[in-house]
Amino acid sequence: MCGRLSQYTGIHDFVAVLSMPNALVSAVGSQPLERYNGAPSQQLALLHQEEDTLHADLVRWGWRPHWAKDRAAPINARVEKVAHGPFYRPIWPNRAITPINNWFEWVDEGGPKKQPYLIRRRDQAPVLCAAIGQFPTGGREPGEHDGFVIITADSAGGMVDIHDRRPVVLTPELAREWLDPATPKERAEQIALHQGESAEAFEWFKVDRAIGNVRNQGPELIRPIADSLL
Fold it and tell me: Catalytic annotation on 2?
């Protein structure tokens, strides 16, 4: 999975698809997020649950343990290893959802530059990505070591032609279970390993190469190039 995504609708639009009766404590605001070209190290909207309350915070995309100062903070974690490796052990219990509208991948099609593709749900509903991280809990203020990673799995079906990895995307029902602090870690691992949405739930199309510049923002970045919808 490449390191770009979009969060342009409002947090309440993302929360609505979860159909959770829980109270929402939001540090994100109610206006559209308008992040069409979200990139690593940026503050992105993240949902997590404390007891019966859903929280929405802006958290840095990327995390590493305090001792791993010899490497850049990863933005993604492989589902095959995330539950048991020492690197992510401190945050494996801290489950979250990164709600996005779409993400981007770059494909080598033989030209001088790789071609970017936008990937979204076919029904254009929010994409609920399984994530883990270190984020504000118990009312504390955000900290310098806060961050999150998106869990990724092998691609399947036609999507493998776009990239060999993709985010673990959950249905609203499974996202609620994933977020619930009462869900055992063993069950959470099974959700991430085996119950992510299949490739058939998604569509993808070519977009302008302007998405490659992180300074570019705006709805024009998510418009398909003519006749490229797959």
Answer: yes
User: Is 220 one of the annotated active-site residues of the chain?
Assistant: no
Instruction: State the Cα–Cα distance between residues 48 and 97, nearest whole angstrom.
Output: 6
CA angle, 6 as apex, 75 and 199 as ends, to 5°?
80
**196 in a structural domain:** yes
Asked if residue 215 is part of any domain, the answer here is: no
Residue 227 domain-assigned?
Answer: no
Q: Which residues form the domain of 176?
A: 5-108+120-201
Q: How far is CA 14 from CA 42, 97, 162, in A?
A: 19, 10, 26
Report the CATH number that the domain containing residue 27 is assigned in CATH.
3.90.1680.10
Residue 148 domain-assigned? yes
Instruction: Kindly name the residue from 2, 51, 109, 173 that is annotated as catalytic.
Output: 2
- Tens digit of each residue's pLDDT (9 = 90 or more) over 41-97: 999 999 999 999 999 999 999 999 988 888 889 999 999 889 888 999 999 999 999
Is-contact 157 164, C-beta < 8 A?
no
Q: Residue 24: which pLDDT band, with cuts at 50, 70 and 90?
A: very high
Q: Single out the catalytic residue among 80, 105, 177, 189.
A: 105
Question: What pLDDT score does 157 carry?
Answer: 47
Place of tokens 């309440």: 12
Q: Are 37 and 6 in contact (CB under 8 A)?
A: yes
What is the tens place of the pLDDT at every residue in 97-147?
A: 999 999 999 988 888 889 999 999 999 999 999 999 999 887 777 788 899
CA torsion angle 146 171 151 157 (round to 10) = -150
Q: What is the mean pLDDT of the chain?
A: 90
